[in-house]
Design a protein that fits this description.
Layout (H helix, E strand, L loop, with lengths): L3 E3 L14 E4 L5 E4 L15 H13 L12 H34 L2 H15 L1 H11 L14 H29 L7 H29 L2 H28 L5 H28 L5 H12 L6 E10 L2 E9 L6 H18 L3 E9 L14 H4 L1
Parallel strand pairs: 5-6
Antiparallel strand pairs: 1-6, 2-3, 4-5
Helix pairs in contact: 2-3, 2-4, 2-6, 3-5, 3-6, 3-7, 4-5, 5-7, 5-8, 6-7, 7-8, 9-10
Length: about 375
C-alpha cells in the first residue's frame, strides 16, 4: 500500500509556500494548520495546562489567521528583501562610482579610472539578479511546474562570469602600469576616493552576503563576494597612491597584481557556491535535520530515501517513510501528513515536501516495488 502526502507548489503555499493542511488530533477532530510559525506547534502533546493557557492568551493579544489571504508568503517576502538589498546596494555603489569618476578625471589616475569602471560594473550586476528575483515571484505554470526560482541560479552564473571578467582588466592594468609607470597628481584626492570605494564596497558586500545567507540566495551571496573584490581593488589604488607619494611608482602595479590574485580566490569560492546550487547540492546538516524530524514522528518505523534541492531560495524535499503494513489507508495518510508537518517545522526554508509511505518486505507479503525493479536497474 502506498500513500503520498503532497504539498502544492510555491504559488499556493504559506510556509515557504506551504498551504494549510488537515492534521488529526487525538480525538479525531481535524484542524487546519498554516506552517508559518517559527515557534513550536501549539497543539503538541504533553503540554501543560499553564502552557495551553499562555497560548490562548497569546492568540487574544496577538491573533494569527489560518486563512491564506491573511498571510504573507515567506518566499515572497524573501524576494522583497532581496530586491531591497539590491536597490540599496545599487544606490550606494552608484554614489561611490560618481565620486571616483570625478576624482579620476581630476587626477588622471588610470588605476582609479579602472577601479571606477569596476565599481560601475558591480553596481550593474544588481540588474540581472533583480530581474531574477522578480521572475522568481511568478506563479508556476504547466510548462514550468516548479516555478521560476532557478532564475536566481542563472543570475549567479552571470555574476561569476562578471567577477572573472573583472580580473582580466585588473591584471592587464597592473602589468601595463608596471611596464609603463605614469605620474599621478592630486594623490590626496585619489587616496580619499579609493578609501571611499573600499568602504562602500565592503558595506555592500556585507549587506548582500548577510541577506543572501538569510534568505538562502546563492546568487546574492556571490554578488556580495563580487563587491568585496571591488573593495580590494580600491585598496590597491589607495596603497598605490601611498607608494607614489613615497617615491615608489612600482608600488601601485605590484599591489594590483596581489589584488588580482585575491580576486581569483574569491572567484573560486563564488563559482563553487553557484556550481553546487546548479548541481542540487544541499548542506548535509539540512538532510540530517530532515531525517531527525521524520524519525521523531509517532508511527514512523524508519526513513528511506530522502532527497532535497534548492529552487531559488527555497527548499523542496521528497522522503520515503516506513510504516506498519497493517495500517489502514486513512491512518497511513495521517502519519504521512504528520511527517510532512514535522519536516516543514524541522528544516529551515523548506517550501514543499512529498512524503511517500512504504513498508519493508520483512513485514510480510511481497515486495511492493518488485514491478519497478527492472526500471530502477
Amino acid at each position: 500500500m502506498t500513500v503520498n502526502a503532497r504539498v502544492p507548489g510555491p504559488e499556493s503555499q504559506s510556509h515557504g509556500g506551504g498551504p494549510p493542511h488537515r492534521q488529526a488530533h487525538g480525538d479525531g477532530t481535524p484542524e487546519t494548520h498554516a506552517h508559518h510559525h517559527p515557534h513550536p506547534h501549539p497543539h503538541s502533546p504533553g503540554r501543560s495546562r499553564a502552557a495551553r493557557l499562555r497560548h490562548r492568551v497569546g492568540h487574544v493579544l496577538r491573533p494569527h489567521s489560518h486563512e491564506a489571504r491573511d498571510r504573507v508568503d515567506p518566499a515572497l517576502e524573501s524576494s522583497r528583501e532581496g530586491l531591497r538589498t539590491l536597490w540599496l546596494s545599487f544606490a550606494v555603489l552608484g554614489a561611490t562610482t560618481a565620486v571616483q569618476a570625478a576624482v579620476a578625471v581630476l587626477s588622471g589616475s588610470v588605476a582609479l579610472l579602472g577601479d571606477t569602471l569596476h565599481n560601475a560594473a558591480d553596481a550593474l550586476t544588481a540588474v540581472p539578479l533583480g530581474l531574477a528575483f522578480l521572475l522568481g515571484r511568478r506563479a508556476a505554470t504547466r510548462r514550468y511546474t516548479y516555478g521560476y526560482g532557478r532564475a536566481e541560479d542563472l543570475a549567479g552564473v552571470v555574476i561569476v562570469l562578471t567577477i572573472a571578467a573583472s580580473a582580466v582588466p585588473a591584471l592587464w592594468t597592473a602589468v601595463d602600469r608596471l611596464l609603463h609607470p605614469r605620474e599621478v597628481t592630486h594623490l590626496w584626492a585619489v587616496a580619499a576616493a579609493a578609501l571611499a570605494g573600499f568602504l562602500g564596497n565592503e558595506w555592500v558586500a556585507r549587506y548582500r552576503i548577510r541577506t543572501g545567507r538569510r534568505i538562502g540566495s546563492a546568487a546574492l551571496v556571490a554578488d556580495g563576494l563580487h563587491a568585496r573584490t571591488d573593495g580590494f581593488t580600491s585598496l590597491a589604488v589607495l596603497l598605490g597612491a601611498g607608494g607614489s607619494a613615497l617615491g615608489v611608482p612600482a608600488a601601485d602595479p605590484v599591489v594590483g597584481l596581489l589584488i588580482t590574485g585575491a580576486i581569483a580566490v574569491v572567484l573560486k569560492d563564488a563559482a563553487r557556491e553557484v556550481f553546487r546550487r546548479l548541481m542540487d547540492a544541499v548542506d548535509p546538516e539540512l538532510v540530517a535535520a530532515a531525517e531527525a524530524a521524520l524519525r521523531g514522528v509517532p508511527g514512523v518505523r524508519g526513513v528511506g530515501q530522502l532527497r532535497m534541492r534548492w529552487i531559488g531560495h527555497t527548499l523542496r524535499a521528497e522522503a520515503d517513510i516506513v510504516l506498519d503494513p497493517r495500517l489502514t489507508v486513512a491512518r497511513a495518510h495521517r502519519i504521512a501528513v504528520a511527517a510532512e508537518h514535522a519536516l516543514i517545522h524541522g528544516v529551515p526554508r523548506l517550501a514543499a515536501a512529498t512524503v511517500h509511505t512504504d513498508h519493508t518486505p520483512e513485514d510480510g507479503g511481497t515486495d511492493p516495488h518488485a514491478e519497478l525493479a527492472r526500471h530502477r536497474a
